[in-house]
Write a structure and sequence with these properties.
By secondary structure, this protein is of the alpha+beta class. The chain is built from five helices and three strands, in the order αβββαααα. It has one domain: Alpha-Beta Complex (Sufe protein. Chain: A), CATH 3.90.1010.10. The relative contact order is 0.23.
C-alpha cells in the first residue's frame, strides 16, 4: 500500500493537477518553506453568492511532497462549499498523501494547505478607486 501512495505522490509531482495561472481568481494566498525551498501560491475562483469554490489552481515550485500535496488538495477543493473547505485540516492533507512523514517533511506537506487557508480567509477583493 505504501508503494502505491509513493507512486501517486510521484505522479502528482511530475504532472501536477490544476497547476498554472487562474484567470479571474478572486482570492489568493501564498506560503513559503525556506527550509526546503518550497513556495506555493493558491488561487481560488469563489462564487461568493453560492459560497462555493468553483475553480482552484496553484503555482510555484518545491519538493515532491509540497507539489504533490498541493496538487491533491486542489483536486479535493473544487466544488466544495466554503464551509466544507473550512473544515479541512492538516490531518486531511496527511490522509490525502497516505504516507508517514518525518517531522522535517510536515511543513513541506502543509505549504499548499497554508497558502489555501490564506486565500480562503482573504475574502473577496475590495474595490478601490
Amino acid at each position: 500500500m505504501y508503494d502505491m501512495y509513493q507512486e501517486v505522490i510521484l505522479q502528482h509531482y511530475r504532472t501536477p493537477k490544476n497547476f498554472g495561472p487562474l484567470e479571474g481568481a478572486n482570492r489568493v494566498g501564498e506560503e513559503s518553506n525556506p527550509l526546503c525551498g518550497d513556495h506555493i501560491t493558491m488561487r481560488l475562483k469563489v462564487d461568493d453568492a453560492a459560497q462555493r469554490i468553483d475553480e482552484v489552481r496553484f503555482e510555484g515550485d518545491g519538493c515532491a511532497i509540497s507539489v504533490a500535496s498541493s496538487s491533491l488538495l486542489t483536486e479535493k477543493l473544487r466544488g466544495l462549499s466554503l464551509e466544507e473547505a473550512g473544515r479541512l485540516d492538516r490531518d486531511s492533507v496527511f490522509q490525502m498523501l497516505g504516507i508517514p512523514l518525518s517531522p522535517a517533511r510536515i511543513k513541506c506537506a502543509l505549504t499548499g494547505f497554508v497558502a489555501f487557508g490564506r486565500a480562503l480567509h482573504a475574502g473577496p477583493p475590495i474595490a478601490t478607486e
